[in-house]
Specification:
With 324 residues, the chain is mainly β. The chain has four domains: 97 residues, no CATH class; 55 residues; 73 residues, Single Sheet (Resuscitation-promoting factor rpfb fold), CATH 2.20.230; 89 residues, Barwin-like endoglucanases, CATH 2.40.40.10. It has three helices and 20 strands. A hairpin with a 5-residue loop joins strand 17 and strand 18. The protein is elongated, with a radius of gyration of 42 Å. It starts with 44 loop residues before the first strand and ends with a strand.
Length: 324
Amino acid sequence: MNNSLKKNINSTFKLLLGSVLIMGLSAAGTNSFGKNQENKENLSIPIIIEENGLQFNLKTDKKNIMNVLTDLDIHLNQNDILFPAIETSISAGTKIIIKRALEISIEADGEIIKTFTAVLNVRDVLKEKNIILNEKDKTLPGLDESISNNLEIKIIRVKQNTITETVLIDPPIEIRKDKSMILGKTKIIEPGKSGEKEQTFSITYENGREVERKLVSEKIIFQPQQKIIVEGEKISIGNVQIGQASWYAKGLWNPQALTAASNTFPKKTYLRVTNLEDSKQVIVKVNDTGAFGLPRVIDLSSGAFKKLAPLSAGIISVKVEEIL
């Protein structure tokens, strides 16, 4: 007998009428449908058994479907589907259809349910298990996905909510230059004021987690007021050095900031550095000391060095001027 016909997983029968089934018996082992069939007489009634979509033709002397299944040692599991009903009488051409239940898991509302089903698709599984989807809920895989063994179905609960928030608007900033003020000095002549606006968002949640936020509307409550800052441009030169400049980046919080290391000028001093080959200039702020010696007089951040020459130059000749 075909081994697939000898499964004895569960002795409980579940009989579901009127179901269309797509899976059935293996056609292999045509002559091995139970030892009880060997050398029997009066096998005069032709019938068909279909399991897992495959059909097997045979003859039987049994009076009803229950006797046929018992004779062939075919056992039904709890969630398998049988059609027609097990008490149905046998007549010529009777077709017995068995749909074997497949094991699946359903993840819904924080729980994972392992179960068996013999229905065709995800939509039917939810109906069978009395799992109700709300209007915006969705499933993975989709509702029309066919059921396969060990299929994992996830129910995604989708909710939408609308919220309104008050948001500050940063004031616009205007920078004005003052040639009478020393370079590096600043003065705020108009502090400005933040504005305020009201924003309404539509928020989408999937299983309680925010996945999307869309701005629905925006209303200005009051406009921000401009902030005005004056920056000095006046340069008074103090001590001057001529020598070489190198660059470094390691250990700097921001290598692109216009800073430098000096063994001559104290920290927070502003320096104007000029490339003696082409007169390119950069103004830097001293924020470090160096371990270098003459002829090197300054070590620039990589960002400052690039204002004067490519980093590949390594060392350039410069004039360093102290800005008072």
